[in-house]
Structure to design on (667 residues):
């Protein structure tokens, strides 16, 4: 088992760099436009419950989604709009879930960031942080039992989630079983309002990898190229049988924890520091500098993304919400073992 | 040949492993060592790669089971003691229990909880957790009281498409014996009349069934006929069988080894009182463990849990009402 901590400071060129950067950028853009739409719908009172955006984490998330392929398992967390789209999730799934459509993947039984399609390898997160790590381990164990080779399981967490017992148990379990798990830590400097210095005392979260006997990677999460390189390499290493990979990406959440939160606690110095850069703008600049896109092309992409989002929202706004009278109030797959509602007075 | 309750659990797992390639067992010390109670003795050797030692990580054990179930496996998780399942509580009640409701993907996992008190085991190796899990939607909770049920209900648990909390009682492991494994079984969700009677309904489950039967035997010599109902499963709860028995006897005493606040005994009384009030000739009664942690010393422990002696006192009191 590797005990390596890989620093990804220097950015090497990828083959087909233009193609993958353009693809990644357009997915990041779509995620951002979708997020902006959700924020606006939230302010209009069109969304029940919370709205949680991915702003500032698109580069990291998209890199993971693009590195995965069909047959892999992906358990995204709260700020993985871009990774979900890159993994192949339809825009409609997110819109239906946020707007509470009965036709959504969760049928309005669960909302906002809690959605997925487990049969497609896209697991629906629960709110308890770290809890998806052993679940992905279990999926990978199942692949092992079934003789399925070459698949990878990936899940994401934030800096705060690394403090949970579930994180420790899950990562240790993956290490013991030498599973092809990729755990991506988005260190966005704050767990809700709590800064890093109240969350952990180690120099770097990637250092934790050494303690578990697995490979650790540390990258600049605001730099799309760095993310594509490092996350791609981590996924490739896991796929090649080199065991679990922990990736820590440093970045800043460019929004509140949810749209109810003005994030007044964020240190203004971070906003002007390198860690506070907007990954979308960094990627845009790189595309221009490399000559991979010009301003007119980018404007067209933005307009395409806006159109796609508007179309999805318009579709979902015509769909019915859930009907409590038609709802099947049974939590069991084994209907014959359901107790029904003996206490309900009729 | 005689088969113990513990043998039945081992044999059921051996059969499940033999008949269904989707089954595997995961838990602490269950591999080569065969488990703290030897419930998986020789299984690792018999089924290589399918009976796996886990780290001491109850939360991750259950999380792994859920992920494997999503991908089509049928894991059996052995908790070393039911008490430690509190560490896995999040994965059981929030992940496993909600999965089907949220995503339409079933979660067929079996969680074996070596439950209940034994002499000298103390606060953290004696607990009865059934009420806690029964409270959550999306879980099946079973409490076999006989060798036959331990075998057939464990096999059924593995076949059920939902998470099953299998509460096996440690007190019954070694001294409860049967001549052979059953070939037929009552399904989960049906209670059993363990002993018919007409004067009083005594509802019990798990190890308390045997205390209840002892009381019924004792009072029979005084001319009192107690009907003992073995619930077998806590969720679903077979209210019909209980209600039919109360209709015959007019008197109800519920006994549980778990703590008194909320729980199985109060649930039964609530159902009978609200749906069958007219059937009752006397106020329904219940008897549970005392409302303290489970004590270590045998003499304290014997006074903490219901026993044939304390149940007999409660039964006689109810007959006088």
């Amino acid at each position: 088992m590797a005990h390596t901590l890989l620093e990804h400071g220097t950015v090497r060129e990828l083959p087909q760099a233009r193609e993958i950067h353009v693809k990644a950028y357009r997915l990041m853009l779509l995620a951002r436009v979708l997020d902006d739409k959700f924020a606006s719908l939230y302010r209009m009172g069109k969304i029940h419950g919370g709205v949680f955006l991915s702003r500032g984490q698109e580069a990291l998330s998209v890199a993971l989604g693009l590195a995965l392929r069909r047959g892999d398992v992906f358990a995204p967390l709260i700020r993985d709009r871009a990774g979900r789209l890159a993994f192949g999730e339809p825009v409609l799934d997110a819109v239906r879930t946020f707007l509470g459509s009965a036709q959504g993947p969760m049928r309005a039984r669960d909302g906002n960031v809690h959605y997925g399609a487990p049969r497609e390898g896209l697991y629906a997160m629960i709110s308890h942080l770290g809890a998806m790590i052993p679940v992905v381990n279990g999926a990978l164990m199942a692949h092992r039992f079934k003789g399925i080779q070459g698949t990878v399981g990936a899940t994401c967490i934030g800096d705060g989630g690394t403090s949970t017992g579930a994180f420790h148990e899950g990562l240790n379990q993956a290490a013991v079983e030498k599973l092809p798990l990729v755990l991506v830590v988005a260190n966005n400097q704050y767990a809700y309002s709590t800064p890093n210095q109240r969350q952990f005392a180690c120099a770097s979260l990637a250092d934790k990898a050494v303690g578990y006997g697995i490979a650790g990677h540390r990258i600049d999460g605001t730099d799309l190229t760095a993310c594509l390189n490092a996350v791609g390499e981590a996924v490739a290493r896991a796929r090649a049988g080199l065991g679990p990979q922990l990736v820590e990406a440093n970045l800043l959440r460019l929004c509140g924890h949810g749209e109810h939160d003005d994030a007044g606690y964020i240190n203004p110095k971070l906003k002007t520091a390198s860690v506070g850069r907007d990954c979308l703008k960094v990627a845009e600049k790189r595309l221009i500098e490399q000559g991979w896109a010009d301003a007119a092309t980018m404007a067209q992409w933005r307009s395409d993304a806006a159109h796609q989002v508007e179309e999805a929202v318009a579709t979902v706004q015509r769909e019915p919400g859930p009907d409590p009278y038609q709802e099947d109030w049974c939590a069991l797959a084994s209907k014959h073992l359901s107790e029904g509602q003996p206490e309900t007075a009729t | 040949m005689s088969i113990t309750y513990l043998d039945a659990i081992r044999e059921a797992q051996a059969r499940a492993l033999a008949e269904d390639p989707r089954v595997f067992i995961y838990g602490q010390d269950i591999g080569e060592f065969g488990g703290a109670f030897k419930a998986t003795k020789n299984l690792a050797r018999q089924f290589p790669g399918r009976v796996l030692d886990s780290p001491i990580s109850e939360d991750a054990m259950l999380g792994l089971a859920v992920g494997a179930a999503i991908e089509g496996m049928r894991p059996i998780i052995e908790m070393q003691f039911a008490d430690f399942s509190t560490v896995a509580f999040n994965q059981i009640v929030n992940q496993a229990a909600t999965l089907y409701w949220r995503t339409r993907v079933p979660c067929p996992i079996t969680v074996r909880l070596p439950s209940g008190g034994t002499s000298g085991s103390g606060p953290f190796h004696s607990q009865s957790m059934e009420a806690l899990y029964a409270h959550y939607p999306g879980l099946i909770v079973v409490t076999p009281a006989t060798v036959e049920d331990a075998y057939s209900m464990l096999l059924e648990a593995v076949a059920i498409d939902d998470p099953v909390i299998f509460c096996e009682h440690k007190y019954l492991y070694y001294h409860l014996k049967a001549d052979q494994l059953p070939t037929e079984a009552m399904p989960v969700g049906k209670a059993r009349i363990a002993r018919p009677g007409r004067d009083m309904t005594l509802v019990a489950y798990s190890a308390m069934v045997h205390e209840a039967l002892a009381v019924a035997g004792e009072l029979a010599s005084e001319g009192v006929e107690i009907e003992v109902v073995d619930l077998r499963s806590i969720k679903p709860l077979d209210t019909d069988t209980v209600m039919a028995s109360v209709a015959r006897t007019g008197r109800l005493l519920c006994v549980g080894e778990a703590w008194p606040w909320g729980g199985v005994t109060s649930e039964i009384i609530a159902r009978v009182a609200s749906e069958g009030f007219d059937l009752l000739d006397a106020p329904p009664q219940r008897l549970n463990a005392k409302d303290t942690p489970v004590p270590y010393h045998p003499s304290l422990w014997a006074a903490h849990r219901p026993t044939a002696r304390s149940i007999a006192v409660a039964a006689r009191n109810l007959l006088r009402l």
